[in-house]
Prior knowledge:
Layout: E1 12-15, H1 20-33, E2 41-42, E3 45-48, H2 53-61, E4 71-80, E5 85-89, E6 96-105, E7 113-116, H3 127-133, E8 138-141, E9 147-151, E10 157-159, E11 168-177
Antiparallel strand pairs: 1-9, 2-5, 3-4, 4-11, 5-10, 6-9, 6-11, 7-8, 7-10
Amino acid sequence: MNRVDLFPSSVWIGEINVDNEKLKDKIYSFKQEVKSAQFSNQGGYQGHNFHDSEFIDALCKSLPMERSVNFMPQIWVNINKKGDYNGRHAHTSTSVILSGTYYVSVPENSGGIRFWDPRGVYMASMPDHIEFHGGCTWHKLEPKTGMLLFFPSWLEHDVEPNMSDQDRISISFNIMLV
Length: 178
């Protein structure tokens, strides 16, 4: 019997080759100049309009879409110390075609990213969902340094608390249609 998945939610996972130590230094310098914004971050630093040409070039070459689309990356950085996390959210804008995160520094026990079932929490109690999917309403990915994720902007996600004594550093972005 053939199976057809009608409403899948794709997440693309890869790596890019950039100098993470150089990026880390640039992000800490950026933090000294740019005040933290408050969106999904709980306790952590979130600095918007970060720019690094090497990172942007590598990011744009990795896009899992046709290059004929006119786009512009909107980029911000995250520094989460021990106990910091990002609450459940989505990147809701009609001009965003993809969202994503690049992991600059991921210490052990610094938290995973969870993607939530877009069909809603009531699905977890349905017999077919319990039988075929274990009733889970989210899927967790364990990031590692150098990992690049792309995902639909509407896919709700959160980041678990950093339980490490070291900073978890990431660069998040939206790919905007122009």
